[in-house]
Amino acid sequence: MLTQQLVNGIVVGSVYALIALGYTLVYGILQLINFAHGEIYMMGAYVGIAVLGVLAAMGLTQQSLALSILLVFLVPMVYCAAYGVTLERVAYRPLRQAPRLSPLISAIGMSIFLQNYVQVAQGARDKAFPNLLSLGSFEVMGAHVSGLQVFILAAALAMMAGLQLFIHRTRLGRAMRATAQDRTMAALVGVDVNRVIAVTFAIGSVLAAVAGVMVGMYYGLVNHYIGFVAGIKAFTAAVLGGIGNVTGALVGGFLLALLESFWAGYVSAVYKDVFAFLVLVVVLIFRPEGILGGSTEVDRA
Amino acid sequence: MRKWTLSLFAVSVALLFAASSPRAAETIKIGVAGPLTGDQAAFGEMLKNGSLLAAEEWNAKGGVVLRGKKVKVELLWGDDRHDPREGVSIAHKFVNSGVVGVVGHFNSSVSIPASTVYSEAGVVQITPASTNPKLTEQGFMTVFRACGRDDQQGEVAAEFIKNKLKAKNVAILHDKTTYGQGLADETRRFLGRLGIKPVFYSGIVQGDKDFTPVLTAAKQKNPEVVFFGGIHPEAILLVKQMRERLGMNAAFISGDGVYVDEFFKIAGKAAEGSYITFTPDQAKIQAAQGVIAKHRERFGKEVGAYTIYSYVAASLILQSIQETNSTAGARLSAHLRSKAWNTALGKIQFNAKGDVLESPYVVWQVKGGRFVQLN
How many CB pairs under 8 A join A and B? Predict the structure, then answer.
């Protein structure tokens, strides 16, 4: 039971962590909570369904599974990145000099808009996510692990590793870190701040798109308000780990999911969310900056 | 100043006429409420289409004969999104817009609080689908239920588990709603009478997506049967996660809230072999054939679990209006109780509480991607 709950928690945790990264990246650079981020994730799942539909109609899912999987992830990534950048351009950039509350309201407005837009465009019903991968399952130390779970964890870890490399090893990553430290100063030394911010939104959205497609595959069911709950949970994870801190988002995501999983398994499934938020409150009382928050300026981004 | 008062008077007189003049060419307003959007929209659509068929049928005849004149039927839609608060505000809206009767709501947790509003306003309410016993136990004259009750349904489920599945270890899950928990508790009560004490009992959160933690805990007790009191969105995820994530092969059994095509369409292979308690096959009812054919022609698909129930609920309200020649709630509710009705579901008679006298439940199974009635 212990290992099984561990497996349950880790898979959900990798999804939380991927979404939490988007919150934390944007916060690190703009000190803005992008409440529409959950909706980007939801749209990722919908685009995944659309791509699968097209691929199945073309018969490609039968011919080349590897190519299909690549496209099912790649197209939502590109699509969501475009949405993320547009979101920033339309809803946040004009308000960059405004009081902090204005972009926040704008973010909530965008969230409601996107949710309703998808509801109108895609219908209010649950949508089935076609089964693409049947990887079978195996037993490890009394726990039932499916191939899909391994795939999800591997994909999530790969994305996270890729992000770390990008932030620490590339020119653009360095520009991101510089912008996070001091936007004005970075602009003065020649960093194109607007471009860096756009890239940040694109990266966050790409991660959310991957999470959306993975969740669609995992649960087989998507609707237009999955973004709300997932967004709140991921935001909690980001705050728990220390918002603005990339490693913190990962720690927070996995920690939150594991706590939920163990609490629901051993104590009460009904009070799962109550417990999750109780932990958040307790952590914030003793460490208002989150578990890893405010540790090093360099790691912010 | 005098001029001002005079014009105010003139405006108010004009408003008075404006308010009263449409009354001459008025319609009979029937409210239809249920989860028209959201994860349970499949059920909302059944309520909508069933009532629509009934209303169109009457309007094709020119309307309902009231005080010697033919009056058209107008349906008002209320989307409660299976939220009790939303349901109550829709009930107030319906009452304020002068509905004569209400078809709805779908979920017991919504129907019960809304029924207080309808009862106070003297508006007849026939729910096609809310099965929680409490609805008709409140002593409201205006409340009617076209479907069965969960104490009947739970008994059938319990007997099936004991006698057909011969199970001893039963895990019970519910979604904490009035309907879900009510059905789970009724089943647990009847299982207790048969000498079976569930090895696992837990609530889950409606709208949640991951139930593997609670299922893992249930799996520890080696259940042969998992009973779920709730609606299809959660049932789909539960059965998928049981089969695909945890490799559980316990039989899955649930109630009428899962009797909807989405269940096996989305859950796919995982849903195969699941059991559902529901009423006997409506396609075999002679009187229902007309509605089934009309529905196919009008909407291009087959009727759902509660389409005909909604059709019957709407028809009964309209028929009693014509027969009593009145739109007064008290007269309509007395008339509805007064006799046996010939409906598309066969003969229906309401008792003093507003429940139908007979509503049998049988067990269905998902076989080859459709529901099959078991004998």
Answer: 97
Q: Which of A131, A219, A264 sits opposite B214 (nearest CB)?
A: A264
Q: Does B83 touch chain A (CB under 8 A)?
A: no
Q: What does the domain layout of chain A look like in residue ranges? A: 2-123+131-286
B214/chain A closest Cα distance in angstroms: 5
ipTM for the predicted complex comes to: 0.86
State the amino acid at position A269 in one-letter form.
Answer: A
Q: Which fold has domain B26-148+284-349?
A: Rossmann fold (3.40.50)
pTM: 0.88
- Where does chain A have alpha helices with state H? 2-30, 37-58, 60-63, 65-87, 101-122, 147-169, 171-181, 183-188, 193-219, 226-241, 246-262, 272-286
Give the residue from chain B lying closest to A9, CA to CA. Answer: B213
Question: Given CB atoms, is A147 within the 8 Å cutoff of chain B?
Answer: no
3.40.50.150, 1.10.287.1260, 3.40.50.2300, 3.40.50.1820: CATH of B151-278:
3.40.50.2300
- Tell me the sheet residues that pair with B71: B64
How close B309 comes to chain A (CA, Å)? 22
Q: Give residue B247's Cα distance to chain centre.
A: 33
User: pLDDT tens digits, chain A, 301 residues: what are they?
Assistant: 889 999 999 999 999 999 999 999 999 998 899 999 999 999 999 999 999 999 988 888 778 888 889 999 999 999 999 999 999 999 999 998 899 899 999 999 999 999 999 988 988 788 889 887 777 888 888 888 989 999 999 999 999 999 999 999 999 999 999 999 898 999 999 999 999 999 999 999 999 999 999 999 999 889 888 999 899 999 999 999 998 889 999 999 999 999 999 999 998 888 888 888 898 899 889 888 888 876 544 455 4
